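hi! just following up on the protien thing from before. the input was this:
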Amino acid sequence: TVPVETAGEPQPAVAVSAPTKTPDHVVRVGNADVMLGGAFTLNTLVSSRRTIGPAGSVFFLAPPDVTGRDNVIDMTAQYSRISLGIDIPAGDDWTVSARTLFTFFNGSLLNASYGFQPLFGYGSASNGRLTFSAGLMFELFSPRQPDVVDSVSALYFSGNPANSPRAQLRAEWRAPVASGTQFEAALALSDPISTFISEDLTDRTEDNGIPNIETRLAVTHAPDGWSSLLDRAKWDIGVSAVYGEFRKFYNVSAPFDVRTNQSRGVSIDAGVSLSPRVALQGEVWTGQALGNYGA
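and the predicted 3d structure came back as:
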């Protein structure tokens, strides 16, 4: 292993779709920089109200069982994860990269069984200002994710929109506008029907022949010398939007009832660091037919 300072300057692939904190060390393989990471965790939830789902999914509560008892203890290691990144110089200031992150839950986050689930996996090409990427990435619409204990669930099913992985093709452009301030613009064509949240979304539902369109504009400010234990900028603000269509079949026998639905939404998100240890973030959104985005 060699320190990052002497291993060149690999560009983070997609700032809004994956964590970009640079590891302390990389492994040099030929002219490629290889980064391997992960975490093995055990989450334990002791609750006086019976929850639905594994430990960590505390936003649904169930009524008491037939015995009248309500207290539970849930333990899970399914939020353990393994990550891998590769950066290869491609000439003319371009870098070809790949990123992948696997977790150990299986299918829906409310399923307590274990599996080897890809949370994201994509390839990209970037010259620092322009980035093209394709694969499984977090959604571009309303991308602000709350920090949660398990580092994975991001309040799925709670009404917080987006934040789940979706297959997509994306283009991003970044440009400095002042000292420490950067403007970002991104456009993505994404899979209209994602089953990451719930497999029920495939029940008599299909796309309408066009990809979803997601877009985001953002301004980020991190002055020279700024350092944050939370891996946050000094402040940032963004606006994003999504549009898509899908068909829903409501009857399985004649007379058939097929309806075309439009998914659309607009979101404004912002964050500010009060200190290197304390930060605030939030988002406000409006839209329709966004159940496929967890809203």
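The longest strand covers residues 258-273.
The CA atoms of residues 132 and 189 lie 12 Å apart.
cheers
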